## 1
Amino acid sequence: MNAHALPEPTAIDPDKLKLFSFHLFGKLEGAVTAGMIHLGDQLGLYSALRGATAGLGSVELADRTGLAERWVREWAYNQAAAGLVEATTAPDGLVTFALTPEAAAVLATPEHPAYGMGMFHRLPQTMRALEDMPASFRSGVGHDYDSHGPEGAVGIERSFEPWNRAFLLPVVLPALDGVVERLRAGARLADIGCGAGSAVLLMAAAFPKSTFVGYDISQHALARARAKLADGALANAAFHDPRDSSLPDDGSVDVVTTFDCIHDMTHPQEMMGAIRRALADDGTWLLVDIKALDTFEQNVKKNPMASLMYGISVLSCMSSALSEPGGAGLGTLGLSENTARSMAASAGFTRFRKLPVDHAVNAFYEVRP
């Protein structure tokens, strides 16, 4: 038999073929509708619907947003067909559109912890990364977060701020042993991967006797953090690029926080070692990262969003983690509890505790020397 001969063709089941095609184009529908969600957010369409006391027809919705009715109507049809917006057809044929209270919370209420527009804000930048992916697949080297431009930083900020504003101070910090008391008395806290600085500024306002320093390598995020700091009246916060002003290595930091960033780093093990050197022997590291399990099979079985997570990893998280040659490339689902525990131990930490904090995406750990 010729070793290079093609295998015999397998008969195609026409019903399975139809189902697979439907499954495939369902993925395309999701991608296209995601683009429509981005437009609804950017154009104020969701805000207009939220502000209405009753359903709006496309003419009134267009008038309230200053947009062309025909475009608004087609957008609204997409949203209604996707089950995101409610549509009601009157006897005279007029179709009106409305948001349920739950949809309004997620789509149009930035103050609500379930607000979900951050990832859709940066959708064009995330998808534009597809243009760079063929070269990355060939070279093995990815792209850092600043490759997504200023709007990429804004999208991440909008993703995390609502939940942090609602839960960081009343729920997360009190779950840590003695940290709130320490911050009230006066302590040094370093937030690594601080992004646009929202958590730092929130904590700095709540604990005026403590000092807070945020570190990030994203110039777009740091620019936003420094602008917000300049607009406020806080004298106990600062933001630095660690390549210019490095994390202390003398055990002088009392608390370290890392929010959703360790899995994005090119050298996470080295960073954990740097955190250990920075922390006092009685210090605390709050490690927050994506909920992940140890194997692909476990992630797919337990996480209904696994395919989204792996795809975002290629376009963003793993790309960042491979943005330097030799990067670890953990990726979005790469830092399971067991992996984090083992890496922390290798960095010199001896205590590792999962916190009882309920979050749809993240796991919370208290790590101590």
## 2
Amino acid sequence: MKKIIIISLLFVLSSLYAEDNFYINDNSLKVLHDAGVKINKEQRENIDLIVKKYMPYVKQLLLEIKDIESKLNNEYKKTDVNLNIIKELIFEKKIKEADFDYIIMSCDLDILELFSNDDIKRIKYYIIFKK
């Protein structure tokens, strides 16, 4: 049940991670509004603070993943490809991606604490029956 809610918040917050101003944009508000969840000014500010707290970790991990992908591409371009290096880089990338997922889920769980049980039920209901 919480997994569904986390997935929804990932969708809601995806636009937050794309912006450096850490504010909820209209698309995020529309999803919550369509789910019947009202966000007051205090909740909005708290969400912004939570996202701002996690943002440095997210950016760092994305840079590390990009660096690993660059190393992989360079290794693939070689005529004498070392499969052990590729295997290690892929394993390292998977670990970084798992760390990234963990940080996003932690952020979402912190944000979930701002909503009441009724709000969470509305979000869950919206996700299940929106289509």
